[in-house]
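Consortium newsletter contribution from the modelling node. Members have asked for a concrete example of what our holo predictions look like. Here is one, prepared for the zinc ion complex that several groups have been discussing at recent meetings.
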Amino acid sequence: MKRSNVRELIEAGEKNKFYKRAEWQKELRPMILKRDHYECQRCLHRWDSDKYPNTRPKKLTRAKTVHHILPMEQYPEYAKETWNLVSLCNRCHNEVEGRDWFKFRVFTKKEKPQINEEKW
Ligand SMILES: [Zn+2]
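And here is the predicted structure:
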């Protein structure tokens, strides 16, 4: 996949497709998780620590998600750069990336969030 293709996916509103690609699922994502020892880097305060200086992790938190530090929407050219990727646990990922998502859930309970179920 070339960079322009990432941009094209995003412009088409099909960002989810990027995460379904073998390149992400089988290469990038496992590589980053392995690099970060499968530990949430935010819980470990190796990332984003300036916002949460006084909280210490009680225990190591297993990372389940690989997060784009610079969002793909704004920086599609960095979508596959390892320095732009960080392993996070689900909770941290929701906090970091899902604030709007949470608001959405709180304020529009009746509406289901749009999930791209399209198979390809
Ligand atoms: Zn975490």
